[in-house]
Amino acid sequence: MKSNFRNAVYNAIGFVFPVLIGLFTTPYIVHKLNTEVYGIYALAISLMGLLSFLDLGFGQGIIKFVSHYEARNDYKRINEIINTSLFINIVMGVVGFFIIFLLSEFLSLRVFKVRAEYLSLSETALKIVSVGFFLNIVSSTFSNIPRALQRYDISVKIQNVIWFCSVMSSLILLYFGYGLVEMLLFYVLFQFIGIILYSHFSRNLLPSLKLTPSFKKDVFKEIFGFSIYTSINAITGNIVFRVDKMIISYFLGTSAVTYYQIPFMLSQMANGFTSSVIQFLMPVVSFINSAGDKEKLKDVYVRYTRYVFTISIVVLSGLVLLGKPFLFLWIGKDITGKSYPLLVIISVVFFFVSISNIGYYIYNGLGKARINMVSSFIGAIAYLLSALVLVSKYGLIGAAFAFSFILVPYPVYIYVLNRILDVSLKWYVNLLSKTLLLILGMLLIIYALVYNNFSLKFLTLSGLLLFIIFVSLLFIFSFISKQDVENLKNRVRKYENRNSYYSISG
Predict the structure, then answer these.
(1) Sign of torsion, CA 140 143 146 151?
(2) Rounded to an integer, what distance in angstroms lies between the CA atom of residue 484 and that of residue 492?
(3) Dihedral angle at the C-alpha atoms of 56, 220, 131, 148, nearest 10 degrees?
(4) How far is CA 497 from the centre of its chain?
(5) Shortest CA distance to 202 belongs to which of 85, 111, 49?
(6) Mean pLDDT, the chain, as a whole number?
(7) Which of 183-192, 317-326, 346-355 has the least mean pLDDT?
């Protein structure tokens, strides 16, 4: 459990660090590039993410099977798994490279609907991104090795260094008058450096590792049998989080992508934090389930569901209440006027996504990844169809409302989960009702104070007041008990004592 807590901490750090950097740097980048060019940048990166499913889920396969065979000290099999995965990723990386490179003109002109004066820039950007995609998919082979060996600290450190260098290079380039092309070239450079760093540390962790890309049919079957479900999940996830921007660009132009991307990015960051904190639940649930301890499994679900609800209340309330003044101070008046209404709608949707995240990890831990796949697929299709209709008729507001259609399978998803764990559905509905009442109450208390005041001082004071009210209501509504607080303190103390021991012994 100590390692689980440590990994949860590192996952949270790995998520928070780039988020903080992004919050400080995005306004400057948008200002220097302008909304049109930033929209092209967002589309290019989204396209790369959209094709990430081409790794066929082998990244997750490395985590599962390397850790499995490492426990058995079967390093020959580990070499076969890594080298087969590397071979597959190189092949699929080449496929992705040619898809993006050869279709750059078509995508820019016909799909993204880039204006004539920016068409050449968009084509160049996509061609550079095609190289970045190849490097990124190859890098996933090495970046997942430390995770498989429970060395999230190494992964997080490398990830954050690469991210920081990439962002800082962008800021320096923009300051000296360079633009999108130069930014993307340096992005590709740091992707390459990332491969070098990950492969170096992978060899240190696995001294017996011999990198010789090769294909072994039995290894491919073993990994693919597991990864097919995660691969389909990746496809549906990319439909939800990538295709929307392409639909917006097609109907409304690249500038509209910026107005949508800003609030979506903020909400997605908040949801990502919740998800990063509870990732460790999957192996915990798997262990408990294998031991046949149904009561312990139920206790874990109930307890961590309350925690997730608690975090999600903070996130939604903060985004809705403080979102408008924050956007005004962060990104400027022009974008705020168009983006804030979208932020409210998208934040509400992400609230339900956040509280369902725990189901994702529990289903996987129980070996029921197929349920996640079916749920994601239904939600993605419902969203895609609604977006095609609503964006063309109602513009950006239509895009935001279309996003809510990913929640179509949510009621059945939660119902099945509670049935499997033998948890009363009434308990869950009661918890959800309390949550919505709590959020509504805070909205009514703070809304009048915050809505039209955009000073940094008032924003800070309002945030502090919101936090005090929030903590008080959490205890009143029994979302958090005194025992929960004590358990958290004990975990932190154990973690600190462990680090102190290593520092002294080192």
Answers:
(1) negative
(2) 12
(3) 80
(4) 31
(5) 85
(6) 79
(7) 317-326
The secondary element (H helix, E strand) that includes residue 30 is helix 2-33
CA distance 47 to 129: 9
**CA angle centred on 420, ends 9 and 348, rounded to 5°:** 55
Dist. CA 331–CA 262, nearest whole Å = 9
Q: Estimate to the nearest angstrom the gap between the alpha carbon of 12 and the chain centroid.
A: 11
Q: Cα–Cα distance between 390 and 339 in angstroms, integer? A: 17
Is residue 98 within 8 A of residue 131, CB to CB? The reply is no
Look-up of token digits 């807590």: 5
Percent of the chain residues topping a pLDDT of 70 = 79
Contact 24, 60 (CB under 8 A): no
Residue 316: HSE in the Cβ half-sphere, 13 Å Cα cutoff: 26
* DSSP secondary structure string for all residues of 328-374: HHHH-HHHHHHHHHHHHHHHHHHHHHHHHHHHHHHHHHTT-HHHHHH
Quickly count: other Cβ atoms within 10 Å of residue 149's Cβ: 18
**189-198, 220-229, 297-306, 489-498, range with greatest mean pLDDT:** 189-198
CA-CA distance, 172 to 192, in Å (whole number)? 20
Tokens 């589309």 correspond to 43
Reported as a pLDDT band with limits 50, 70 and 90, residue 499 is very low
Using the structure block, give the residue that is written with the tokens 């491969």.
195
Both tokens of residue 108? 């820019």
Say how far apart CA 467 and CA 472 lie, in whole Å.
9
- Residue pair 221/81 in contact (Cβ under 8 Å)? The answer is no
- The residue ranges of DSSP E strands in 155-313, in sequence order, are none
Specify the higher pLDDT residue, 306 or 277.
306
Amino acid at 488: L
Q: What residues contact 282, with CB distance under 8 A and at least 6 apart? A: 361, 362, 364, 365
Cα R_g (the chain), whole angstroms: 23
pLDDT, position 2: 42
Torsion of CA 210, 215, 220, 223, to 10 degrees: 20
- Inter-residue contact 74 to 219 (CB < 8 Å): no
Contact 227, 174 (CB under 8 A): no
Cβ neighbours of residue 73 closer than 8 Å, sequence gap 6 or more:
none
* Mean pLDDT of the 434-456 span: 62
Judge contact between 42 and 112, C-beta under 8 A. no
Q: Count the helices and strands in the chain (H runs, E runs).
A: 19, 0
What is the per-residue pLDDT across 56-91, written as a single tens digit (0 to 9) for each?
Answer: 777 777 877 787 677 678 788 888 888 998 999 999
Segment 319-340, tens digit of pLDDT: 877 788 788 887 777 888 888 8
Q: Which amino acid is at 299?
A: D
Contact assessment for residue 324 and residue 340, using Cβ atoms and an 8 Å cutoff: yes
